[in-house]
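Input set for joint prediction.
Command: fold jointly, output tokens.
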Amino acid sequence: MYKVYGDLYSGNCYKVKLLLVQLEQPFEWVDIDILKQESRTPEFLAKNPNGKIPLLEIEPETYLCESNAILYYLSEGTEFFPSDRLERAQTLQWLFFEQYSHEPNIATSRYIIRYLGAPEEYKPVLEAKRGPGYAALDVMENHLTTQDFFASDRYTIADIGLYAYTHVAHEGGFDLYSYPAINAWLARVKSQAKHVTMSAR
Amino acid sequence: MYKVYGDLYSGNCYKVKLLLVQLEQPFEWVDIDILKQESRTPEFLAKNPNGKIPLLEIEPETYLCESNAILYYLSEGTEFFPSDRLERAQTLQWLFFEQYSHEPNIATSRYIIRYLGAPEEYKPVLEAKRGPGYAALDVMENHLTTQDFFASDRYTIADIGLYAYTHVAHEGGFDLYSYPAINAWLARVKSQAKHVTMSAR
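tokens >
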């Protein structure tokens, strides 16, 4: 059985849980408290030398890290990853966009506010992330104005990857009020079969 | 024929060129000068709303962006992408590592020094990127101490992805002197059949 080392309120970890539930794959969840440096212990670093969560234990001694690589691993050959060559690459294109242009701005702002509780201390950092964060949301809004999902014409791991931190963007200080296409897409993702919330155990 | 919109000295663009040459795929190269904002023109934004290079034109009106998604698209089904399921996911794991933990520190430092020529102006930014940049190199060194390549036991797009900015890390102020395994791997990558340098036309 798969084992997921994660934090319940981390969007990167939520991605993996959401997909496993929708795939009806049983898994064990191991809580890792990053604020207590539990991803930096010698035991954890032996599993993932990069010291990050989520981490998927495929079988004892076989680990995979990087949330979007885990999504790829779990979804290959299923309805959540396209069978068309170009659509497969577009799925990954959006997942790379998520990790490069979206997560470092929106998720990191949320981390400062929600996890560290230190918006004043990190004010210049938060301010520097506002522009690029909204620019990423603009790119999403632009795409969703003419399309229902990110890759292919249906729900894939590209949507799971981008949903994770977009649906809690307000916790990072990002206002989605003027993004109607994103809001409609968030509702579409939530309405997918077997959807679970971030906090679900 | 493929068309690549890129900058000759961008590592992200170099990845695509290197793979296309090694695949013996003919392609046309279109120079885009990012300092002249050529990736922000209305014409370019119509092709890639995220305004970034490289951009692959697969056929007229069909575009793919995100360098590592382009590597995936081009390498699927070839010797440069593993046939084993776990190794495929590990290849992507390293490519996501590259875009999240490596590129934003090492490539961005190089951009400030080499492109903007403004290390003094951006001194606090460069200083903030030193620790995470060296941490990424440590993760690579740790892996390469026991393995010749990143995913699988041979040269794949994971190596191409990581080679692009690692071989010019010194231009970003990163000293590779104390990374013997990385240096040996750089030499292995350079010795691959049909290898071309970054500046090759």
